[in-house]
Amino acid sequence: MRAIILEALHISKRLPHVRREDLKDLWRAALLVWKSAPGWAVASIALVIPQGVLPLASLYVMKLIVDCVATGYSSADSEAVTGQLLMFVALAILVELLSILIQSAANIASEFQSTLVSDHTQDILHAKSVAIDLEYYESPKYYDTLHRAQQEAAYRPIHIVRSLTQLAQNAISMASTVALLFLASWAIVVALLMASIPGILVQMIYSGKLYRWQVSRTEKDRKSWYLHWLLTDKSFAKEIRLFDLGSIFRDRYTALREQLRKEKLDLSVSKSKANLAAQAIESMAVFGSLAFLAMEGMKGNITIGDITMYFGALVQGKAVIGSLLSSLTGLYEDRLFITNLYDFLDLEPNIKDPLKPVKVPRPIEKGITFEGISFSYPGSSSVTLNDISVKIKPGQVIALVGGNGSGKTTLIKLLCRLYDPQKGRIAIDGVDLKDMRVSDLRREISVVFQDYAQYNLSLAENIWLGSAAGPLDMGKVAKAARDSGVDRILKRLETGYETTLGKWFDKGTDLSIGEWQKVALARAFIRDSQIIIMDEPTSSLDPKAEAEVFAKFRELAKGKTAIVIGHRLSTVRMADCIYLLNDGHIAEKGTHEELMALKGEYAQLFEIQAVNYR
Ligand SMILES: Nc1ncnc2c1ncn2[C@@H]1O[C@H](COP(=O)(O)OP(=O)(O)OP(=O)(O)O)[C@@H](O)[C@H]1O
Hints:
Rossmann fold; single chain; four-stranded antiparallel beta sheet; ABC transporter, ATP-binding protein; cell membrane; P-loop_NTPase; elongated; 3 domains; 10 strands; binds adenosine-5'-triphosphate; 614 residues; transport; six-stranded mixed beta sheet; alpha/beta; ABC transporter transmembrane region fold; 9% strand
């Protein structure tokens, strides 16, 4: 009890400050709902007023009926009274039917509105996910924020609007009920209102507790999701069976869920106890008022019809207070939780377009320059690239080689502006990449990353996605397929280019890793870009396919600026210039012949590989 009082004091201290923020957040949610489905929002609002007033109209008709029956006993003209009674009964039926009709219409409006709002919010979430920097994907905090936002996105904004409309409806009902009860006694009204205060406090306190618990459990929740994914996704299915890992992950999952369940249960039990005390106080006020009304009736101060009406109003008042409470506290809770969604939507990309973008040179005339680049990954204390300078002339093919983790892929990520270097600059024809529109720059780059994507879409779409700015052109798709060797896979696909790749969907056909890599190559080849980058493009190809791709590559890269990353030195020897990276800096550079003559690290690596391939 002491804890509840302390928490109540804590909340009351914060109320003036919270209120401004509350209103801002609620307004933002209301705007979101409005933009998602303006028509349905109008319908919902229009239905609120009759829903608030009709219950009272029903009570009043009931009073008329009871009073009519009471006067019927003493009236000489029983026929006239019966006629009047029947009219009142008909009126009661009419009011009831109207209530049902309006309720049904409100339900339909609410259902449509919910679906539209949920889909619209999900769309905003998707748009944000693709707009933010890659850097966010490196941070567990980002995944926590996304996880919480996803949990809230589907229903929280509409929940807020429902609570608001319900609040308006309850406020109308409450105002009319209070006005009616005032006719009986002001003391009843005061007692009822006072008795509802403990309930409000309990709800607010526990909403805050629930919110804090939800935030603190996010990591555990995500861990359990991760374990679920390990147990159900295809990527892990082979190892899980072979190493018999199923029971280990299942046990971990069960332990985590058990912990979460226990925490939630403790919270629910404690809330139920507090609720019980609050409701007992409220019930005492209601039944005390009922006793008072009964006494007044017995004294003859009010009619039997009045007693029926006031009794009804009291019962209704109790229900309205309950509903008012739940919509008020629902709003308080919603306001707390909607911040999860806003936290995600308010993430700002650091890599932004400049105010006055310069066009990307087309054709590139002088080339690409990396000028004294140094870079560390966000949150990492080690330097990944240290004072790198590279010059690539248009039409040149350069190769980046070096051990694992030497920084080759990172250099490519900087060129694509997935990250920005902390020192130095990258320029095309002397124009800093930061002065170009990000999308314009990326349109000029075609990349096959090591961890290329495997889209569970048709083969044609898998290739076309490389040039998705234009319509699907089967001529171009077929050419890219020939250049990358995909046409060989085609022969065994029953529905040719229409075949869905992967096993996610019905009739999907899976490919081998090497075949998927060829599809990724085709996706890069179809793109009409001036820069082409291949990060270990042939690592999964058999030697014959690899030789073919490289033979084609020089031809395809003609007129383009190309960067190839490779571990098999035999395949990169055709490059115009080879850069050997070591621990984030350039250790050697030159043509294959120059580097061999240097007899340095490159020559040593080449010899080792040559022996292994012999
Ligand atoms: N997202 C990241 N966050 C922090 N460090 C990273 C990240 N990605 C890579 N690194 C680190 O940066 C260094 C360079 O990585 P990079 O992927 O550029 O190497 P690489 O030369 O392409 O290696 P490989 O030949 O194995 O593909 C490595 O030490 C790696 O651990």
